[in-house]
Amino acid sequence: MVEFTLLTFLWLLVCLLIGLGYAYMLYRSQTHLSNTLQKSLFALRALAITILVFLLFAPLVKRINRTIEKPIIILAQDNSASIAFAKPTKFNLEQYTSQLRSLEKKLASDYEVRSFNFSGDVKKGLDLNFSGKLSDISAVFRLANNQFANRNVGAVILATDGIYNRGTNPQYESKDLKAPIYTIALGDTIPKRDILIANINYNNLVYLGNQFQIEVLIEAYQAKGLTSKLTVSDNSGIVFSQPISIASNEYRTTIPTLLQAKHKGIQHYTISVSPIDKELSTKNNSQTIFVEVLDGKENVLIIANAPHPDLSALKESIDINKNYEAKVELADQVSDDAIAKASLIILHQIPSVTNPAPDILKRVSSKPLLFILGGQSNISAFSTAQNVLGITSSGAMQEAIAKVQPDFYAFTLSEAAKTKLQNFAPLQAPFGNYGIKGPSAVALSQQIGKVATNMPLLVFGNDSQRKIGILAGEGIWHYRLEEFQETGTHEGVDELISKTIQYLSSRDDKRKFRVYSPKNTFDESEHIILNAELYNDAYELQNTPDVSVTLKENNGKSYSYLFSKSGNAYVLDAGILPAGEYDYQARTNLGNKKYTATGKFVISQQQVEFQQTIANHQLLHSLAQQSGGKMLYPSQLDELPKLIQINERVKTISFEDRKYEELIHIKWIFFLILTLLTAEWFARKRNGEI
C-alpha cells in the first residue's frame, strides 16, 4: 500500500492534471476519430502520463508478508546400549520402536517433526540399533538451543532411561529451553541380580620401579549372601586376588590394590569379578586398563632473580604434566646439584639489573634454557648471553599482546589455545629494537595496542648445540587468573607452557622420518590421529612423496592407510577402530632412499553403558515437571499427540514482515504503463494516426 500524506495527495492531483492536460493537447484536434474512440484514447494517454509523472515523486509502498511457522517437535530417542541391556522383562523393544515411528508420522500431520537419535553424540533420524557406547542426554538440549535458536520449538519428546555418562547434568542444560519436555521413561528401575565393576580409579602414568595403587569400586544388587572373587591380571598372569562376600542387596565396596611397575612401556591390566548365580549379565564383570610406565621424570629448574607471581604460575603449569617436576630456586641460593639434575633451566629475569649473573650463566652453559624477561632484566647482558635474540632497550617497558604466528611448526597449539592467547591481557615487554641473530622460530609476536609488529614475544633457536627459548615479557600469571575467571580452567596457559617445556627439554631427534600419535591411549569412541614428518639431507620438511601406514591389531587384523598432506608434513585420521593394542609401521621413499617408522598405541574398550543398570526415572520426571511437560511410559505413547495439542504453549506462530520500497521497483506497474501505451499506439495506428 502507498503511504498517502497530504503532500502525496496534492502531488497525485498535480500528476492527474498534467496527464489530462497532455492528453487534451494531443487529442483536441483529432476530429476524424469517432467520439468513443477519441475518449478511450484520451483516457489511456492521460492515465499513462499520470502514472509516469507520479513515479517521478518516488512514492514508497508498504509491503506486508505473512509467514506461518508450525511448532517444531523435537523427537529424540536414546540409542545407547543400556536401553536394550537393562530393559524390563516384558518390554518388547521392536514393538516399541514401531510405535515410536508411528508417533512420528502422526505428529508430522500437524507439526514440523525433527527426529534424532543420540548416544555419545546426536544424529538425525530414528535409525536405531541400541549399541551406542555412551549416553549424553544434555547433547539433545544443546542441539535444541543452538540449532533451533529463534525458532518456534513447540515441544521436546525425550525417550531415554535417564542414565547419562557423558556431558553435563541434563537439568542444567535444559533450563534455557523455552518449550515443554515430554519424557518417555524407558529402562527398569527395579534392581536385578548383578555384580559389576562400577569404576576404577588409577593413574595412567607411573614410573619404573615404583608401586602404584588402583581402587576398584564393586557394586552388587539382589545378591545378599553370595560370594565372588576380584582378580587383577597382566601379561604374566594374576597379580592380585581377593574374595568378596556380598553383605546386602545393594552392596558397594572399594578395594584398593597395590601393584608394582616392573616393565617400561604400555602395560595392560584386566580387572575381573567372578560371575554369580543367575546374574543379569557378565558383560560388566571385567574391565581392562592401560598404564604407561615411564623411566623417570624430567626435572625443570626455575632460577629467579627475586620472588615473583610468575614463578608459581610456571611451576603449576609444568607440574600438570606428570612427566615433569618443577623446582624454584633464587639465583643466590641455587646449588650445583640442582643444576646438574635439571633437563631444562628457566632463567626468570636473569641476568638482572642488580645481578648480571655471569656465574649463573657459566654454570648453566650446557643446559637448554628458557629466558623470561621483565622489568628487572639486564637487557644488555641478556643480549650478549645468547645468540638468538638481541634487544636494544632503555629499560622502559610496554604492554605487548600475544599474536600467534601461523608459520610456526616447532610444536602445534590447539585452535582453542590460540584464540585464548590472543585475547589475554598483555604482558610487560622491554621497549626497544628487537633483532633476530640467527636461525629461529617465532611462536608469538608482539601486538602493541592494535598494531601487529614483527617483534618476537616467544621465540626459539639454538645456541652451542642446545635449545634456547625466550619469552620477552613478564606477567604470565595474569593469563592463568584470567583464563580461570572466564572458563574455570587453565587449559590454554598450561598447553602453551607444557609444550614449550617439552620442546626445549626434548633431545634432538635426528631421524629423517618420524611418525607419532598425540597420545598413546585412545578411548574406543575417539578418532585415531597419526602425524608424520619427512626431512631431506638439509633437515628441511618435505611432503612430496606419499606415506603409507599399516595398523596391526594384536589379534592379527590389519588396516592400511595413506597419509594426507598437511602444510609441510602429513596427518592421518584413521577414524574409529575396535578396542585393542595396535602396532603401526609407516613407509615412504625420498629419492632412492627408503624410510620406515614404527610405533604403538592402545584403544581402551568403553563399558560404561553396562556399569549402571537401574534407570533414573526421577531425572526424567524432574525434566518434565520443570519445563511444563509430562513423563510418560512406553504404553502411553498414544496419549502424546493429545497432550501436545492441548498445551497452550504449543502454538502456530504468524510472522509479519513489513518493509517499504519505491513504487518504481514494482514490475507490474511497468507492464501496466507498457500495456496502456501499446493499446493506444495500436488503436491510433489502426485508425491512420501517427
Key traits:
Rossmann fold, 5 domains, 6-stranded mixed beta sheet, 16 helices, 35 strands
List the helices and strands and how they pair.
Elements: H1 6-27, H2 35-55, E1 60-69, E2 72-78, H3 81-85, H4 93-108, E3 112-118, E4 122-124, H5 138-147, E5 153-160, H6 170-173, E6 181-185, E7 194-201, E8 205-207, E9 211-221, E10 227-234, E11 237-245, E12 250-260, E13 265-273, E14 286-294, E15 298-304, H7 309-319, E16 324-330, H8 336-341, E17 344-348, H9 358-363, E18 369-372, H10 379-385, E19 389-404, H11 415-423, E20 427-436, E21 440-448, E22 451-463, E23 466-471, H12 476-487, H13 491-505, E24 513-516, E25 521-523, E26 529-535, E27 541-542, E28 548-553, E29 558-562, E30 564-566, E31 569-573, E32 580-590, E33 593-604, H14 617-627, E34 630-632, H15 640-646, E35 653-662, H16 667-686
Parallel strand pairs: 2-3, 2-5, 5-6, 6-34, 8-14, 15-16, 15-17, 17-18, 18-23, 25-33
Antiparallel strand pairs: 1-35, 3-4, 7-9, 9-12, 10-11, 10-13, 13-14, 19-20, 19-21, 21-22, 22-23, 24-26, 26-27, 26-31, 28-29, 28-32, 30-31, 32-33
Folded structure, characterized:
This protein has 690 residues and is of the alpha/beta class. It folds into five domains: 88 residues; 158 residues, Rossmann fold; 101 residues, Immunoglobulin-like; 208 residues, Rossmann fold (3-Layer(aba) Sandwich); 92 residues, Immunoglobulin-like (Sandwich), CATH 2.60.40. The protein has 16 helices and 35 strands. The chain has a nine-stranded mixed β-sheet. A six-stranded mixed β-sheet has the order 4-3-2-5-6-34. A hairpin with a 2-residue loop joins strand 30 and strand 31. Helix 1 runs antiparallel to helix 2, helix 2 runs antiparallel to helix 16 and helix 7 packs across helix 12. The longest helix is centred in the N-terminal third of the chain and has 22 residues. It is extended. The relative contact order is 0.13.
